[in-house]
Amino acid sequence: MIKREHARGWSLRDPVAAFIHGSRNEDFPRSISSILATVDALPLDWREYCAAATAAVFLGADERKRLGVYFTPPILVSHILKRLIEFGYDPKNQTVIDPAAGGAAFLAPVLGAVLDARGAGTDPREAVALIRGIEIERRLAEVTRSILASRIAVAYGRAKPSADDESMARELVTVTDSLEAPEAGLMDVVMGNPPYIRIGAADYIRFQQIWPDAGGDGGYINLAMVFVLKSLGFVREGGLLAFVLPGGFVGGPSFSSFRRAIAPMVLAIDRIEPRERVFADAIQDCVVLILRKGGRGETVPSSLSIDIDRPVKEFGLPSIPTNGLPWAIPTKAKVTHGTHSLRSLGWTGRVGPVVPFRWQSQMFHAADQPERVTSSAKLIWASAIGQDGSFDPTRTSGVAKPDRASVDLKASFVIRSPCVVVQRTSASNQKRRICAAAIDISMVRRYGPMVGDNHVIALFPPDTVKNADQAVNSMAARLNSLEMSTVYASSCGTASVSVKQLMEMYLPE
Fold it and tell me: What is the pairing mode between strands 305-307 and 286-292?
């Protein structure tokens, strides 16, 4: 509702005052006015969330995406606090820093936890002395300070923050880039939800040189992993770190160095579900990762499943190899990993070469240029692979896309024999994370040479297989099974299917 009204030109000067302590000196659209009573009835932490989310909307879609501004809901923060206390965090005495403190999603509840632990009669200044935040975006830093000022006012029994409360809150948050902040190594706990931003080509080399363990193993670097490594410098030896992170690092080939660097420190890794309801306006696979700097020889890392609609459950222990190989997080489905991968069975995998904006001159409609058909290949779009396991190259999501591509028909990426094709990306409405379809010999004869777009993976059985049609149909069914989706999800939190990971992961029995 806020987004809709903002698109119509409405803006709210002080969402913190409006949603937290009810100072509404502004005009509200009718649609927003109708739910203010509902907001007022929410617990304090959810009113703070409303204020922060509203402030994020007013940054604008482009700025919000650039900064990765998607705030953590209170239910996750509460879970993380419980987990940290389980591993030794003492709210009464220990210091906490949030290196991405915009919106006070963590700092405000932590301040509340400190005040509760210290009990009635505590001078709020004593609690405030234990927490600190860093935020790069000045507007978000001001929102964070306003929310913390309201928390301090509540501690003093005031309805609204005083000038002293605001001054105290201002000292809590430093406006700077956390990646450039000095590392004193004095804090007891680091916690937060860093921005999930892919480092672009312009900064890739620089980040890889400074943060070689963040990723970049022939792939890419995510800023969230850089924040984790940087934060190790903020905390003392034996201190705790807790982050909400994008799940792609769990099994993604680009993050083997990151996994290897932090594996000895892992205390817990908890899966968050469902992915489409964790953050407002975003679909994202996430996990809660808890580390102890330096490690202390804890025996086995633990793992929980956090379903925001149901109680937290434990389904088993995670697999955290220390050599950089993919991790596996247990799920509620009882699935046994087998002992074979596609690679060990002799299969080979290739990603389709056709990147539409680069191949514009090579793609065409057969009906428009029949003279080029004999020197071209049938173009397979990802939509040709149905969620029901069917294959239909004429299916193009209702859009008239080119159906041929001019290529060297002897090139290795041209499909001329039975294979399994897999969608490289999964949509939020898919029940399975992997959608595959078999291309048997009859289809090869019907359509002739084929070539996939870059959202299609082609898997070929070994040359020694006696019945290729049987092999591809059997493997497509195996990949389409719910067991396979479960195994894949347990070691990968990204919507993109990595051909390297798909080839190397153990298939379910």
Answer: unpaired
Per-residue buried b or exposed e for 389-414, using 16+ beta carbons within 10 Å of the residue's own CB: bebebeebeeeeebbbbbbeeeeebb
CA distances from 4 to 20, 24, 32, 33 (A): 21, 20, 10, 14
Span 214-269, pLDDT tens digits: 876 666 788 999 999 999 999 999 999 999 998 888 887 788 899 999 999 999 99
Give the separation between CA 310 and CA 358, rounded to whole angstroms. Answer: 46
**DSSP state, residue 450:** E
Q: CA separation (Å) from 396 to 172, 313, 381, 385?
A: 54, 41, 7, 10
Q: What's the rounded Cα separation, in Å, for the pair 400 and 403?
A: 9
Residue in 148, 137, 72, 153 with CA at minimum distance from that of residue 107: 148
Torsion of CA 179, 249, 309, 265, to 10 degrees: -70
Indicate the DSSP class of residue 265: G
pLDDT, tens digit (0-9, with 9 covering 90-100), for 28-85: 888 888 888 888 899 999 999 988 888 888 877 777 777 776 778 888 899 999 999 9
Q: For helices 107-118 and 44-57, what crossing angle results, to 10°?
A: 160
**Distances, alpha carbon 211 to alpha carbons 45, 134, 222, 288, 338, in Å:** 35, 20, 11, 22, 35
Residue 458 is encoded by which pair of tokens? 């082609």
CB 404 within 8 A of CB 364: yes
Instruction: Indicate if the alpha-carbon torsion angle 99, 102, 108, 109 is positive or negative.
Output: negative
Three-state secondary-structure class, residue 461: coil
Whether the ω angle into residue 274 lies within 30 degrees of 0, i.e. cis, is: yes
Which of 378, 379, 462, 454 minimizes the C-alpha distance to 422?
A: 454
